Structure prediction request, 307 residues.
Amino acid sequence: MSQSAQLLHEPWPDRPRETEGYVFAMWIFLATEVLFFGALMAFYAVNRWAHPAAVKQAAAHSDFWFGTINTAILLTSSLTIATADRALEHGLPRLARVALWLTLAFGLAFLLTKGFEYRKDLEDHLWPGPNFALVAIGARPFWGFYWIATAVHAVHVTIGLGLIVRLIILSHRRMLRPRQASMTVTTLYWHFVDVVWVVLYALLYLVGRA
Amino acid sequence: MTRRELKSVLLVPVATWAGLCLALAATAAYAFLPHAPVKPVVALVIAAFKVILIAAFFMRLDRASALVRITAAVGFLWLSFLFIFTFADFMMRSAGA
Prediction:
């Protein structure tokens, strides 16, 4: 049995059909994720429509620099994982491994920065509980959205990091092959995490400046 | 590494990343411009541009089959239904009040 045939899973007759199958399945999963985050963003949109001035004032309290640095970190992590995927496809496993390690480092840096930002937010009483710093109607829903959306996103990042660690282990065991399902699916997932953050950045960090 | 490999493995991802960084700088700068018009629209349009760059070149929709492209588009189509029906309901309630 050839190496290529050994990598095939039931019920696929050949590699192109198998690849098409898991990429298709992953995009269906990502479509459900679009709706999951979309529902949260619909809540944000309604609140912003109803209380535009309060949302602008509330958003001005988010930390622009933490958000911008984290956006740059996540965009760069997308570059490194895209490089890993393409390097593996072209039979460059060493480059792929280095790029995966870099992606892991950027992902951890994102979570660390987010942790510092959360600490600052809590010190500024921006948790919409009893000691919430803002009084305008619309400020609490904004910050409620901020905590829920960024926490759920951080959970997604953490899951993505787990998948990347798995890929690194497979790579060190020389078990990663070009266009392998694990690599392609993890890459798509990680880029989607980036897509969600790009939209959250516009909604949370760019409102109420100047 | 051949020229073709270099282009696929490094040049395309780096060019996409550079485009994303420029868009990030543009959207951040515009947000701070005093009295700049339609800031929310500009921020969302640039975010959409970044999403398209990521989807096309990082997520490889530029080379995906029609089936995969349609599946990706359907997610956003249903998202548009979610927003249309949400705001149709919300704005009708406001009109009734």
